[in-house]
Fold this sequence. Notes:
Blueprint: H1 9-35, H2 56-62, H3 65-99, H4 102-117, H5 120-131, H6 136-140, H7 148-151, H8 153-178, H9 182-190, H10 195-206, H11 208-223, H12 226-232, H13 244-253, H14 258-283, H15 290-293
Protein name: Multiple sugar transport system permease protein
Subcellular location: Cell membrane
Family: Belongs to the binding-protein-dependent transport system permease family.
Amino acid sequence: MNQTTFRPVSLVLLAPAAILLLSLLALPIVYAIYLGFTNLQLIGPHAVNYWFTGLQNVRQLLSDDVFTSSLWQTVVFVVGSGAFGATVLGLALALLLQKASGVVGKAVSGLAILAWNLPPITIAVIWYAATTSGGTFPRLLGDANHDLLYSYPMLVVSIANVWSLAGLSMIMFSAALRSIPTEMVEAAILENASATQRLFRLTLPMLKPTILMSALLMTLLTFANFTLVYLMTGGGPDNQTNILPIYAYLQGFKFHRLGYSALLGNVIVLLSSALGLAFVLIARQYRPGQVRKNKLKIISA
């Protein structure tokens, strides 16, 4: 039997990669955490001469009403439009494309993939023009002068985010649907199971790992979607779309408080890590093949 042996020369071979990771990943992370506990400024007396201030920024963070509001808006935007909205729309599109004709299916999938591949600045311009006064949606609703983006800012930017990410989610679910064994579907049909029963008792359980993966990926992509929200609303009106990435940017580059901005960035990392860990813990409850091993139990229509 072959046994794995440790060779000291392997440390020499791994040293360049370790040094690269340390210098480009670990040290910047540690430095960013440190800056969150300083009074560093972009412009001003503390732009060069800054120092460690302990928990001063943390105490200010805990008493910052704008931060509390921004944290809630971030959760709503990320979970609502990313983990839930984009995943549900992508799943719905993938299911509908299974029943659509060739031409219709290719057209819908092509448009969804096109929306996913558009740059965020293009998506922001499209939705800004379509939802502000004189845009397409106000005209369709019968009031061309109604500014939907101003009246419902979080809803509009969330819909724009869902629209931009649904194509990727659709691709993931389309591939997963093709992996469902046809004999299981045929057996369910022979048992006179309705389409609704097949969806909830067969298709969705088989898609559980893909649903979790899509929700996690959409969450991470939504966290990084700073450009879309900033170009459409700039965090307004009245801080209604002031999610944490925008709030951190404004604190650092508008109010010149880089130390406090770094602390907000650390909060973003912790929040995204917590959401990612939650998805991983949920995914660990799934065992590959579990659905196939269970006896197919479908109540006849």
